[in-house]
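Issue 218. Parser rejects a valid record. Input:
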Amino acid sequence: MRNDPFCAMPKGSTGIALGVERHFTATGIVIDDQNRALLIRHKKLGVWLPPGGHVEPNETPDVAVLREIWEESGVLATLLPNGEDHAAGDEWAEVLHAPFAVLLEDIGQRGVHFHIDLVYLCAARGQEGASNPEENTDLRWMTLREVEALDDGAIYHNARHLIVKALRGRA
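Output the parser choked on:
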């Protein structure tokens, strides 16, 4: 890594970086009434992940995550509160749902393309869902033990960590 204030800096950096792409994404850890998490096998990556994707222009992240969950799985979900107070103090401002976590993910691990991933906790609204062949190759509801038992190559470490944390917190 160069000693340059405009280079991509990992771990804790939010600085300006020329030649670096950063996109906002939203991911939903969807939990059903049996305390199982919804995971999809990503079509391009081949790993199990919670549903999610890019925040579209003029879309808020909390709306984006619900849209992405629906598009990728056919599951309707609701956002779970994360301690936020929805009173903004006036009629011209709205408090959005607070994410469970915010990740800066180095896509391709080359320091040039990042996702600023707002990860939300969500509750399924009753349906099982179905895989969307345009987005993924499989869909499963997994228990805590099933998520923990996935091989390291089958799920990203950060995804497993947050899903396990969410499922343990709901048990």
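Fixed in the parser; the record now loads. The first strand starts at residue 21 and ends at 31.
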